[in-house]
Each structure stands twice: as C-alpha cells, then as structure tokens.
Amino acid sequence: MKLSPIPNFAFVSLEEANALHKWKATLQIPNNSLISSWIPLPLNSSVSVPCTSWFGIVCNADGSIKNLNISASGLKANNFSGVIPPEIGTMLYNLEIFYLNGNNLSGSIPREIGQLTSLYKLQLSDNFLQGELPPTLGNLTKLVHLYQYNNKLLGEILSSLGDLTSLNVIYLDHNQLSGPIPIEVGN
C-alpha cells in the first residue's frame, strides 16, 4: 500500500502573531505594502493563521517563526519607517533568519536582539539605524552572517564579536564606527 504524503502546514503562534502586529502598528507603511497579509487575530482567538499566508514569514513545524524577511521583499526598498522594537528579542525567540535590510528603519538596534540565540543570519543593512552596536550581539553564537552596513552606527567595533566563532561573513562598512578592529574578531 502506498501512502500519499500529507502536507504539513505550520501555523503562526498567537503570541508571535500578536508581537508582529504590535510592531506593524508602529511602522509607517506604504498603502501597497506586502505585509498587509499580516492580518490581526481576534483577542483570545483559538484560530490560527497558516504561516504560508503571511508575507516574509516561515515557521517551524511547531508554529514558531523561524524566518522573518521583510527586506524589501526580495525587491529593494519597502520604504517602511519606524524602529526595531525590543520585543523582537523576547517574543520571536526561535528566529533563525532576520532580514530587515533596504527599508527606512531608524533608532538603535535593541539590546534584546542578543536574546535571539538561534539566529544564524542577521541583515539590518541599508537603513538609518544609529547608536552603538549592542554588546549583546556577542550572545548570538550561532550567527554565520552579520550584515549591518550602510547605516549610521557609531562607536567601536565590539570585542564580543570575537565570541561569534561561527561567523563567516561580517559587513559593517559605511557606518561611523571608529577605532581598531579588535583582535578577538579574528577568532
């Protein structure tokens, strides 16, 4: 007897869906935005939304958001404006890929981003992010790719980036970083 595979559709967890909606509400978003597919769920809802119906979202089998890619949707310049909220680090804790490049995001990179310990790709380039690199980036020990070029970041390059022993690619150019590259970064 031959069995046909049953499609496995993951559903966005309610907690993570609410975190994304809270963030979406703070953004200035053009009318034709592709994230209009992020439709809010009713409070106390037992209804789930398939991950495949939300633009830029990929989930694990358990419904945790694994990939968040609103980096101009593979097209350049979504023209969102706003900030990266601290809740990203506490609510999307299973995130592995985080792409927000090519938008108009401003503010600082929240230190809570260091709680995304499953992250292996972080792309925040081509925005207007400012302030210093958060020292908590050193907690992202699975990180392989780090792209934060073409922002307004300042301060010194962190020696804690040397703790990222899986890091293969790092781009921090076109910022206002100063000082020498710490020897630890070569680890």
Automatic annotation (TrEMBL):
Gene Ontology annotations for the cellular component aspect, listed alphabetically: membrane
Domain Leucine-rich repeat-containing N-terminal plant-type: from-to ranges: 15-60
InterPro entries: Leu-rich_rpt, LRR_dom_sf, LRR_N_plant-typ
One family name in Pfam for this protein: LRRNT_2
Gene3D superfamilies the record matches: Ribonuclease Inhibitor (3.80.10.10)
Major localization class: membrane
Compartment list: Membrane
Keywords from the UniProt entry: Glycoprotein, Leucine-rich repeat, Membrane, Repeat, Signal
Origin: domain of life: Eukaryota
Name under which the protein is recorded: Leucine-rich repeat-containing N-terminal plant-type domain-containing protein
